[in-house]
Write a structure and sequence with these properties.
The complex is a heterodimer of chains A (228) and B (241).
Chain A lengths: L1 E10 L2 E11 L3 E6 L6 H8 L7 E6 L2 E2 H4 L7 E4 L11 H11 L6 H10 L15 H12 L6 E5 L7 H14 L4 E6 L2 H5 L4 E6 L2 E7 L4 H11 L1
Parallel strand pairs in A: 3-8, 3-9, 6-7, 7-8
Antiparallel strand pairs in A: 1-2, 1-4, 4-5, 9-10
Chain B lengths: L3 H17 L3 H23 L2 H34 L1 H6 L5 H21 L2 H10 L4 H28 L3 H24 L2 H9 L2 H9 L5 H25 L3
Helix pairs in contact in B: 1-5, 2-3, 2-5, 3-5, 3-7, 3-8, 5-7, 5-11, 7-8, 7-10, 7-11, 8-9, 10-11
């Protein structure tokens, strides 16, 4: 289980996220929703161990991030909001490169499976710099799954995808949940409502609302955005 | 599980691909050979051959001072701009592997840039009778110097934000190390000796004269280790340990 307890992150005098607490059972896809500047990316970067909480604790199965140190990163598969692909590398070269960095070189078949699952076969020998935004986004999501991580963090993975690609990504995420925790941020609720079982709505760096995904999610979201 | 050798290979391969599939390395190598070749021809026409070689060595040293840190820092700055840095640092790869791999990439680029100047050596050998021993030690000196400058470039890329800021920082540090020798003349006693011993110029003189001195090699090795070490410490402070 992923537990986040009273986490705040400050940069200088500014508090970027404030008193964020939630817990997520394994096998859950949780949608992190909110308008731009709500603090979604900061939450994901903190969970990824890129930012350190100023206050509060983050733990996986009772083991805190602080006590695990660098081992925490073994749990993490992270796809930032910018698709971090190397323009000069082909898709295949890039995914093998990330696999080596994550210490998953024996997963050559894993790379192949991911290429098939993310419908990247036709572009696997194409340089990433020549790909459309949608393909780059899919490559970025694919690399997050490379090391069989327990916690997958996807920042705006549907950004720039056409409707068909969004549906494909949803199907892939639904099939990849297993006993992982997948946290997906977006400001489009409709894209995630069908695949997420839980949601968190953020605004102004704080959690405004959270719960199980039901029909009232959209109403909740509009209330939060309307309040701002 | 992280395999240090395989991970270093993967990072160096990534940098190699970025360098060779973009115009960066080709512009750097052809640029340096064209500039050095042109200056060399002008000097040969105006001076004695032995003077020409010495002057050329000084010019290559000066060009390395600007070029090597820029080449070494480029992949790091690129990674930051495309967002790859976040993916890399959210992986369990030890920081030291990342820094060492980047230094090796810098050394590969330095070696290729130096290889581009070998045409001039061949031309000199064809038309004259140069002291090959001196030339070999000069190249050894440039590689030793390149090693330290690559480490300084990586450190500057990590503490700086953009390409220009990092270049200015690395240039500033190298210039300081360069200017310690003239400063030592203005001072006296142990302080003067300390300034001279820490100056880059003092430790390149032997290589230019065809002499390989252990203390000169040690100087560049220590400089490399210090800057690689500082880079690892800075990055570790930003990551979970």
């Amino acid at each position: 289980m992923l537990t986040v307890e009273s986490v705040s992150v400050s940069m200088g005098d500014r508090r970027i996220i404030d008193d964020v607490s939630f817990s997520v059972e394994k096998g859950t896809l949780i949608a992190l929703l909110g308008p731009n500047g709500a603090g979604k990316t900061t939450v994901l970067r903190t969970l990824a161990g890129i930012l350190t909480p100023t206050i509060g604790t983050i733990a996986w199965d009772g083991n805190s991030m602080a006590s695990m140190g660098r081992d925490w990163y073994r749990l993490i598969g992270y796809s930032p909001d910018r698709s971090p692909v190397v323009p000069e590398m082909t898709v295949l070269e890039y995914l093998h490169f990330i696999a080596e960095i994550k210490g998953a070189p024996s997963q050559e078949n894993g790379v192949k499976d991911l290429i098939d699952a993310m419908s990247l076969s036709e572009v696997q020998t194409t340089r990433c710099g020549l790909l459309s935004h949608g393909f780059r986004q899919r490559v970025s999501v694919a690399q997050a799954f490379l090391s069989n991580a327990d916690i997958i963090l996807l920042d705006e993975p549907t950004q720039g995808l056409d409707p068909e690609q969004v549906v494909r990504l949803r199907h892939y995420l639904a099939s990849a949940i297993s006993d992982r925790v997948i946290v997906v941020s977006s400001h489009h609720i409709s894209e995630l409502a069908q695949v997420a079982s839980r949601y968190i709505i953020m605004g102004g760096g704080k959690i405004q609302s959270m719960g199980d995904v039901t029909a009232k999610l959209e109403a909740d979201y509009l209330t939060v955005v309307g309040r701002r | 599980m992280i395999h240090p050798r395989r991970t270093i290979q993967a990072i160096v391969f990534r940098d190699w691909i970025s360098m060779t599939r973009s115009p960066v390395l080709w512009v750097a190598t052809s640029g340096i050979s064209a500039i050095v070749g042109l200056i060399f021809c002008l000097i040969v026409n105006a001076t004695h051959q032995s003077d020409a070689l010495s002057i050329m060595e000084a010019i290559i040293g000066f060009i390395l001072m600007i070029l090597v840190p820029a080449l070494a820092s480029k992949p790091i700055i690129d990674d930051r701009q495309i967002g790859l840095e976040e993916v890399v640092f959210a992986s369990s790869m030890p920081t030291s592997i990342w820094v060492i791999a980047r230094w090796i990439s810098g050394m590969v680029a330095t070696t290729l840039v130096l290889a581009a100047t070998l045409g001039i050596v061949v031309a000199v050998g064809w038309f004259g009778n140069p002291d090959l021993g001196k030339i070999v030690t000069a190249y050894l000196g440039w590689i030793a110097m390149g090693s330290a400058f690559a480490a300084i470039g990586i450190w500057a890329a990590v503490i700086g934000r953009g390409a220009i800021g990092s270049s200015l920082v690395s240039l500033g540090v190298i210039l300081c190390l360069w200017l310690l020798a003239p400063l030592s003349v203005l001072t006296s006693g142990r302080f003067s000796e300390l300034l001279r011993e820490t100056s880059v110029v003092h430790h390149t003189y032997g290589f230019e004269q065809g002499v390989v001195v252990g203390s000169d090699i040690l100087y560049f090795v220590v400089l490399t280790i210090v800057f690689i070490g500082m880079t690892i410490i800075i990055l570790n402070a930003r990551r979970l340990e």
